[in-house]
Design a protein that fits this description.
This protein is α+β, with helices and mostly antiparallel strands. The protein is 48% helix and 12% strand.
């Protein structure tokens, strides 16, 4: 049986219906204008579809809402985890918070073994005694290899600048290599990606899978696998992004490069403090990657589920079970 939609649940179902590929294709086909196709109220009013019973509409909307809610929770968690990592990095290695606190005999705010590893005084150049000035290239190196499209499987994940969010190291969107027609750069899961075109867009992230990326993305990693949390925290800081913008070449389409990025000045701490930082932040990075992979699975589930729900290929009873699993 089919009936018209009505009320709050109907509105949710109508929104879901408009997300369906068939609906989008109909609207795109009936849009007017060549240069900037657009819709008007008359066209939208002509769009029609058969709707299932109100109860079935409610179930469809609830299922997709539960998936979207979980995706949103994962993204908000990742924002929090990244903010925590940045705050620790800034306090330890930019503001030298523990050292300054010890210099004034302030109460410790870190675990005892970590607190004791921080020097009590700063030396030449204003950095903690026993630490040294260095460059990003001292602890990181460019990775990735050039690949030709004919040697890449069509299903290989592909990350372009368009897939990288601004100001977030969580990369939960990517395409496939099927449409790639030019040379790209291969990367491995755990590599770090930095958008070198218009670096002020602040596109930095951790590759959650093996794949290929645009040549407008620098692929790098830490020289020691254990130091990856330190390196990703460094290159995703505002100070580093600002440096790459200042030193970029080109006016209309400014770019940075690894040869410029690796010269960024950093403060290299003692081995004990560096190890403590990596041990503290690594679980946050791991959670971010785990949430990214789960979000990708949920997104693919939603996108596969939607057209089948709309066509009736999947029974509503099966959908209810999906809703329970996603809750």
């Amino acid at each position: 049986a089919h009936e018209e939609t009505s009320g709050k649940n109907a509105s949710a179902y109508d929104a879901v219906r408009l997300m369906d590929r068939t609906s989008r294709e109909w609207l795109r086909h009936h849009a007017i204008g060549a240069t900037m196709p657009n819709l008007n109220e008359g066209i939208i009013r002509r769009f029609s579809f058969l709707a299932p019973s109100l109860r079935e509409q409610e179930i469809v909307a609830e299922v997709l809402d539960s998936l979207d809610e979980k995706i949103d929770v994962n993204r908000r968690m990742n924002t929090t985890f990244e903010a925590m990592a940045h705050a620790i990095f800034k306090d330890w290695f930019i503001d030298f918070g523990p050292t300054r606190a010890k210099a004034t005999d302030s109460p410790p705010y870190l675990a005892r073994d970590v607190w004791e590893a921080f020097p009590k005084e700063t030396g030449d150049g204003g950095i903690p005694v026993g630490w040294r000035r260095g460059q990003l290239g001292d602890i990181a190196l460019q990775t990735g290899q050039s690949v030709k499209p004919e040697f890449v499987s069509a299903e290989t994940p592909y990350i372009g600048l368009e897939h990288m969010p601004r100001r977030s190291i969580a990369l939960d969107a990517w395409g496939r290599a099927a449409k790639v027609t030019s040379g790209k750069t291969a990367f491995s899961g755990g590599d770090l990606l930095f958008g070198k075109l218009r670096p002020y867009f602040h596109k930095v992230g951790i590759a959650p899978v093996n794949g290929i990326c645009s040549t407008d993305i620098v692929v790098l990693n830490s020289r020691s696998p254990d130091d990856r949390p330190f390196v990703i925290s460094c290159i995703s800081q505002d100070e580093f992004v600002a440096y790459t913008d200042r030193t970029a070449y080109g006016t209309k389409m400014p770019r940075t490069s690894w040869s410029r990025m690796e010269k960024f000045g950093i403060c290299i701490p003692s081995t004990h403090v560096l190890t403590a930082f990596n041990r503290t932040v690594s679980p946050l990075i791991d959670r971010i990657v785990a949430n990214v992979l789960e979000t990708r699975t949920l997104t693919e589930t939603r996108d596969l589920l939607l057209p089948r729900l709309m066509s009736g290929e999947i029974r509503i009873r099966d959908v209810e079970q999906t809703a329970v699993a996603a809750a």
